[in-house]
């Protein structure tokens, strides 16, 4: 499944945790189920591997709007107001609420490890 959109501002918690994300607004009609995915992201014709999240961010905000966030591996820079394409390749895990920010950081580290292993097979 692929979606394109303009990167919007978020609450910068991913950056604080060491996993900065590019955020794209999605709504209830976006067909992906909530959770974590292996992703490929296109930025101005350049392809990046990454990990994506779709959902309401129950661990940090209980957001009232659904989001698509993606952490691009090997990218540094500002993507605000730029158009990106995100392809969700493989579903990794269901969305769940973490008990603390440290638990969320640990889960993100594990997600990245799992996603890196999956990408080695592609």
Description:
- With 122 residues, the protein is of the alpha+beta class.
- The protein is built from two helices and six strands; from the N terminus they run E-H-E-E-E-E-E-H.
- Strands 1-6-3-4-5-2 form a six-stranded antiparallel sheet.
- A hairpin with a 2-residue loop joins strand 3 (35-43) and strand 4 (46-55).
- The protein starts with a strand and ends with a helix.
- The mean pLDDT is 90.
Question: What is the end-to-end distance?
Answer: 16 Å
CATH architecture: Beta Barrel
At the first level of CATH, the class is Mainly Beta
Q: pLDDT average, as an integer?
A: 90
The largest pleated sheet is described as: 6 strands, antiparallel
The total strand number stands at 6
**Shape category:** globular
Runs in which pLDDT lies below 50 for 5 or more consecutive residues are none
The total tally of domains equals: 1
Count of alpha and pi helical runs: 2
The H/E string reads EHEEEEEH
* Radius of gyration from the alpha-carbon trace, in angstroms: 13 Å
According to CATH, the homologous superfamily is Riboflavin kinase-like
Helical residue percent band? 10-25%
- Sheet/helix structural class: alpha+beta
CATH topology: Elongation Factor Tu (Ef-tu), domain 3
Largest beta sheet: strand ordering: 1-6-3-4-5-2
Give the DSSP E fraction (strand runs of 2 or more residues).
35-45%
